[in-house]
Amino acid sequence: MQNYLLDACALIAYSDREDGAPIVKELLHRAERGEIIVSVHAANLIEVYYDRIRTVGSEEADKTVQDIYNSFYINVIDTTSPSVVREAAYFKVPGKMSFADAILVATARCTGATVVTSDHAEFEPIEQQGLVSFLWIRPKR
Length: 141
Hints:
This protein is of the alpha/beta class. A 5-stranded parallel beta sheet has the order 3-2-1-4-5, sandwiched between helices.
């Protein structure tokens, strides 16, 4: 079964009805129907949480994150395997990739998941190396 891993920006785009939200919405509908697996790593959920605190306040942030945890069709990955730890370190070493993004791409690489994101600047070099597959929710700006 095809596996998708949501970046924080994909969840934020969906929540805020930004460009790319319909792509995320369709993935969530497909996951609800059992056609695909959609996951988010807790490290990226932290990014969603602090974005929500800054933009809409802590009460709404709590609701957003709780809704994701309560979802039957979004799998929250809250552990890391030794292989993910090792891969994340290798992704983090050469550049300025955030810790959460390093965990994201390492998890995708270790599980064969496709990363769902809009962050071309961060991830296009990874895609060009053929290390991880990406589903871009909006075009490069």
